[in-house]
Design brief:
mainly alpha
Amino acid sequence: MDATGEGSDAAYGALIDLARDIDKGRTDAYDAADRIRIWRI
């Protein structure tokens, strides 16, 4: 995102929660991308 001039502003612990959900198979790539898009500033 930095290469495009955008940043991210994830809530405290949101990135860890996303990583855990991916690891446990509760989140796929499309859901992960949606969450990351929400964090864009």
